[in-house]
Amino acid sequence: MCFLWHQFVVLQRLFNRYLPAMHRLSNRTHEETLVFFDLETTGLDTSTCDIVQLSAISGNKIFNVYMLPRCTMTDGASRVTGLTTCADGLFLHGQSLDTIPVKEALKSFISFLKTINNPLLVGHNCRRFDSPILLRIMSEFHLLDEFLDVLSGFLDTLPLSREMFGLQKYSQPFLVQHFLQRSYVAHNATEDVRALQALYRVWQPSMELVNKHRFRL
Fold first, then answer.
1. Where are any strands of DSSP class E within the chain?
2. Tens digits of per-residue pLDDT, 165-204?
3. Sign (positive or negative) of CA dihedral 182, 98, 127, 109
4. N or C: which end of the chain has fewer CB within 10 A?
5. For this UniProt entry, which segments traverse the membrane (predicted)?
6. How many CB atoms sit inside 10 A of residue 111's CB?
7. Residue 187 backbone zone (phi > 0: left; psi -120 to 50: alpha; other: beta)
C-alpha cells in the first residue's frame, strides 16, 4: 500500500511539473505571428494588374522579390513606384533589377511563410487591394490551396488605424510621419513593410480590435 501511494505521489509531482510546460507548448502552436506584407503592381485594377514586387517582414525575417510582369505597367504606377518595364526586363529609376518568374516568386513566398508559426498577413488597405490581387494570382498558378493552408488570415491596418485614432488622414506615409516623426521611401514594398511593422509596434492594438479587423478570404 505504501509503495502504491509513493508511486501515486511521484506521478502527481511529474504531472504538476510538466503540465504547465505542455500547456505553454500547446498555446505556442496556436499563437499567430504577424507578417507585414506589401505589393507593388502594374496598376490599380485588382482584377487585371500584375505583381512586380512582393515584400514581407516578420521581426528580423525579410522577404523580397521582383518579378517581370505579364502585362505592361500603367504610366501612373510607374510614376508612383519608379518601376518601368521593357523587353530587357524590370527597372527601378532606370537601374536594372534581378527578377524571377511569377510562379517561382509565389512559391518562394509560400516557402518563406512556412518557416513562420501561423502567419497572419498584415497590410495597409490590404482587404481592398493587396489581398485580392495576391489571391487571384495564386489561383492563376494553382497555388491558392497551398497558400491558404499555410496562412492564418489577414489583418488590415487601414480600418484598424481609423478606429484607433482620430486623424485627418490615414495614408501610410502620413501615419509614419505622425507617429514616427520621419519620412521614408513610400511605394517601395520593402520600405513599406518595414515602416508598417514599426507603426504597429507603436500602436499596440488590443486583441479585440485585431480580431475585429482580421479576415480570411
1. 33-41, 51-58, 61-66, 83-86, 89-92, 95-96, 119-123, 153-156, 214-215
2. 999 999 999 999 999 999 888 889 999 999 999 999 999 9
3. negative
4. N
5. none
6. 11
7. left
